[in-house]
Amino acid sequence: MAKLFRAAIMGPPGSGKGTISKRIAQSFGLQYLSSGHYLRESIAANTGFPRTLAQAQALNSLYQLDLVISLNIPYETLRERLSDRWIHPASGRVYNMGFNPPRVQGKDDITGEPLIQHDDDKPEALMARLRHYKDVAKPVIDLYKSQGVLHSFSGTETDRIWPYINSLLSTKMHTQPSDAYSKILMQ
Question: Superkingdom of the source (predicted)?
């Protein structure tokens, strides 16, 4: 049986996890799961998996992650990204009015259905979300760092971070069996 390549992407709200995951999926022919998309409605306080130390330990008891990518983005960049972020709720498609706007303002490009802005993406809620993320994520990041699977990337533009992530994954993926079926697990 082929070995699975398991990876997680961590970062605060608006850090580019979805964008990076899509690029990884396209570049490497992988699948990804978005805990934010699938669990948003069912988990209170925007906690996904693995976002707490207990969840990370539970995941570790089932599967060993091969790689964890941590995205470190400055607060001001996150604030700008989130205040401009609009979402098509049914599909999870994300638009940014600054650099990826819909063709028709307020409407999804594919369905024409209305876009929404999550209350927790509005500037007044952002500081609390970031503080919560930092408090909850630190022990998870420390766990993955101690296991030697954590790779951190800092910057303000996904396009500048991506080449480094792409290079890391190219190296890591070539150390896996060529017939490995892989998934990207996004946080």
Answer: Eukaryota
